[in-house]
Specification:
alpha+beta; Aminopeptidase; globular; N-acetyltransferase
C-alpha cells in the first residue's frame, strides 16, 4: 500500500472521484457551497487530500480542511458547508487554524472491511499533529442514518449496541480510533433544486407538495410543486478525535 496526495498524482483524479461517487447518492454532489469553494480547497490545502494506492490503483481516499475552532460546542461550524466556508475564508483572511476537520473519506467496494478508512483517517490525523493543529473533528454522514430519515440526529446519536459502540458502522469506525460524539451538525448541507432536478437526482417522482423519504437521504426532502422547488437540509454528527 502507498499513501500519496492527489496533488502529487493528478493523473489519478478521475479514479479517486469514482471511488467517492460510488459511495454517495447523486443529490449530494449538487450542494452549491462546494461548487464555490472546492477549487480553492484544492489550491490551499493539498496536503490534506490523500489517496491510498494498492499496486497503483486508488482504493481509498479522504480529505480535510484546517480551520480555527476554539474547542467549544458553541463555536463548532453548523456542519460540512460551514466548515468548508470557515476554512477557506479563514485562509484568505490570514486566520491561524487550530484544528483539522475531516470532510470526506471513501473506500472502493473492492476493499471493504480491510481497514482502509482507518488508514485514511489516521494519515490525516498524523498530518494535523505534525502541523501543530490541536484538535481533529469531523461532521460525519452516518452510513445507516438514511434508514431512519424521520429520526433526529440527536436521537440517532444515542443508539448503541450492548458493547457500548454505536449501531452505525461509520460512527463505530471513528469510535475505534478514539473519537467521541460531540453532537448534531444541524445544517450540514443544504441542497436545493427544481422538482425536475430532484426527480432526476433521486430517480423518483414527486407528484404532490410534501415531505418525502428519498433513497440515501438522512432527512426528509421537502418538495413544493407550486414553487417548483425541492429543498433538503441534512443533519450530520460532529465527533472529535483524540
Amino acid at each position: 500500500m502507498e499513501i500519496v496526495t492527489r496533488a502529487a498524482r493528478p493523473e489519478l483524479h478521475d479514479a479517486a472521484a469514482a471511488v467517492f461517487r460510488e459511495r454517495w447518492p447523486e443529490f449530494v454532489f449538487h450542494d452549491d457551497v462546494p461548487a464555490r469553494y472546492l477549487g480553492r480547497v484544492e489550491t490551499y490545502f493539498p496536503r490534506y487530500d490523500v489517496m491510498v494506492l494498492d499496486e497503483g490503483i486508488v482504493v481509498a481516499g479522504g480529505w480535510a480542511v484546517p480551520l480555527a475552532w476554539d474547542g467549544t460546542l458553541d463555536d463548532l461550524p453548523s456542519g460540512y458547508d460551514d466548515a468548508l466556508i470557515r476554512a477557506v475564508d479563514g485562509r484568505e483572511a490570514g486566520v491561524e487554524p487550530t484544528s483539522l476537520s475531516f470532510m470526506a473519506a471513501a473506500v472502493a467496494s473492492s476493499h471493504d472491511k480491510r481497514g482502509m478508512a482507518g488508514v485514511v483517517l489516521e494519515e490525516l490525523t498524523r498530518r494535523a499533529h505534525d502541523d501543530g493543529l490541536r484538535q481533529v473533528v469531523a461532521p460525519l454522514r452516518p452510513t445507516w442514518k438514511h434508514r431512519y430519515p424521520t429520526v433526529s440526529m440527536a436521537e440517532y446519536a444515542r443508539w448503541a449496541r450492548p458493547d457500548g459502540l454505536h449501531i452505525d458502522p461509520w460512527i463505530r469506525t471513528h469510535q475505534r480510533l478514539g473519537a467521541r460524539v460531540l453532537g448534531p451538525a444541524p445544517r450540514s448541507m443544504v441542497i436545493e433544486g427544481t422538482v425536475a432536478e430532484w426527480e432526476r437526482w433521486a430517480d423518483m417522482a414527486f407528484p404532490v407538495t410534501g415531505e418525502y423519504v428519498v433513497p440515501g437521504a438522512l432527512n426528509l426532502v421537502r418538495v413544493d410543486r407550486e414553487r417548483d422547488r425541492g429543498v433538503y437540509v441534512e443533519e450530520n454528527l460532529w465527533v472529535q478525535h483524540r
